[in-house]
């Protein structure tokens, strides 16, 4: 179930010409195979390891020669349509158009949210540490465009595909920085995630319509990297969070709104005694007709967090030039300084669209940016304007019960706002403590939690 292409998105746009509803975020959960569906892949995984009991054989016989590098850890040669060389699932998300070759796959992207994944484990967790500690490299043999993102995904703490979020986070590197003569070599240490819980390698964040053909994905010893291959230094690129780290915490990240509903939202927050995070677009803040400058100044005065959401709400990763990405970031930051008098390192990408370039540019302007997506989706973008608006409440409760604790919602529709109090009370009934996103991520610079004693 891709989130793209819903007509409701268009209906939403009439609410506001400058702020579009967030959310075409890829639905990993339903598209990754469930553990039940991958049982035969787990079997293949076992077989693979029996066939290769020692991944790092030592040479004992040729003392006069330097030891041979260990054989590559082969991940994918694109020989089978549904599984890779490890026997695990590989495939496209968000409708990425594919052409299968005999030993290759051609990706013909139309959107930066489209990704092709090749899994390192059967939807559980793969420990990459032995490969990292020996300075091994990810090697990709490809042809065509290098204008995309390579991500390494990290599973959730229970390594459970049926819990939210799945995956928990990922790191993203810019393929074009590492590509040279149809090859890419990336030191595994360039991926900053919890490498004991890796899940998949993913190709996405395409920002041109050029196709790319992949032939081989493997992990190789540093000695196998051709001499003088230009491996660039790693660039900072921030942290992507989909869940609160603080035990028992729950956070609302509220994106775009209708000025006319802001007072009602403020009243509910006040009466329920909770603090939330608002992600605010620069252009809306500057628009005098909306009164948003006064609304968000008041939200700040009351102790809520106000964070960045780009300047004009486009899919930043899909923009053709870094200059355009920069403008979206810089103008948002400037509007915050000039209108609200604040600085923040928290950012939510419009539509949840994120890739290597956006991450790098954020980290260029903001020290250690915190890029916030979500693990609870009220699906207002899908249901708010329909005959079944109560599906918003159902979607919210479903995601919380699956372990999600960081929500995305908007105040674009009266129906969404009408369920707001009820979902807050539902979260409280689950014994969770509602707080700002910086607080739920245990940011040392966040304001102290106000513990209310009943
Ligand atoms: Zn948005």
UniProtKB/TrEMBL annotation:
Gene3D superfamilies: Glycoside hydrolase/deacetylase. The keyword Transmembrane does not apply. Its cofactor is Co(2+). GO terms for molecular function: hydrolase activity, acting on carbon-nitrogen (but not peptide) bonds; metal ion binding. One of its GO terms (biological process) is carbohydrate metabolic process. Coiled coil: none annotated. Residues 49-76 are annotated as: Disordered. This is Glycoside hydrolase/deacetylase.
């Amino acid at each position: 179930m891709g989130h793209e292409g819903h007509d409701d998105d268009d209906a939403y746009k009439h609410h506001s010409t400058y702020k579009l509803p967030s959310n075409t975020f890829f639905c990993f959960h339903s598209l990754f195979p469930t553990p039940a569906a991958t049982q035969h892949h787990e079997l293949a995984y076992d077989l693979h390891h029996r066939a290769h009991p020692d991944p790092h054989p030592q040479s004992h016989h040729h003392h006069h020669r330097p030891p041979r590098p260990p054989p590559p850890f082969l991940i994918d040669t694109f020989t089978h349509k549904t599984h890779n060389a490890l026997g695990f699932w590989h495939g496209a998300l968000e409708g990425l158009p594919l052409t299968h070759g005999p030993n290759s796959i051609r990706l013909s992207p139309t959107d930066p949210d489209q990704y092709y994944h090749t899994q390192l484990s059967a939807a559980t967790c793969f420990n990459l540490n032995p490969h990292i500690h020996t300075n091994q490299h990810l090697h990709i043999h490809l042809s065509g465009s290098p204008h995309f993102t390579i991500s390494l995904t990290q599973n959730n703490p229970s390594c459970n595909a049926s819990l939210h979020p799945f995956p928990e986070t990922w790191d993203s590197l810019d393929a074009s920085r590492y590509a040279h003569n149809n090859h890419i070599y990336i030191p595994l240490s360039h991926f900053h995630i919890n490498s004991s819980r890796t899940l998949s390698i993913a190709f996405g964040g395409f920002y041109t319509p050029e196709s790319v053909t992949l032939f081989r994905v493997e992990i190789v010893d540093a000695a196998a990297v051709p001499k003088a291959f230009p491996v660039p230094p790693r660039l900072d690129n921030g942290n992507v969070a989909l869940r609160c780290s603080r035990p028992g915490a729950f956070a609302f990240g509220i994106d775009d709104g209708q000025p006319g509903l802001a007072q009602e939202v403020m009243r509910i927050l006040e009466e329920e005694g909770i603090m939330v995070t608002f992600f605010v677009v620069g252009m809306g803040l500057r628009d005098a007709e909306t009164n948003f400058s006064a609304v968000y100044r008041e939200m700040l005065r009351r102790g809520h967090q106000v964070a960045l959401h780009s300047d004009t709400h486009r899919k930043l990763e899909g923009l053709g030039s870094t200059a355009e990405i920069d403008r979206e970031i810089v103008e948002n930051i400037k509007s915050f300084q000039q209108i609200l008098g604040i600085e923040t390192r928290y950012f939510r990408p419009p539509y949840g669209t994120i890739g290597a370039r956006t991450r790098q540019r954020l980290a260029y302007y903001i020290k250690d940016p915190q890029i916030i997506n979500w693990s609870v989706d009220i699906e207002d973008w899908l249901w708010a304007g329909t005959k079944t608006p109560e599906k918003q409440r159902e979607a919210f409760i479903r995601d919380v019960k699956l372990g999600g604790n960081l929500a995305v919602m908007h105040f674009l529709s009266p129906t969404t706002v009408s369920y707001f109090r009820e979902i807050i009370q539902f979260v409280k009934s689950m014994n969770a403590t509602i707080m700002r996103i910086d607080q739920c991520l245990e940011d040392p610079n966040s304001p102290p939690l106000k513990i209310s004693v009943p």
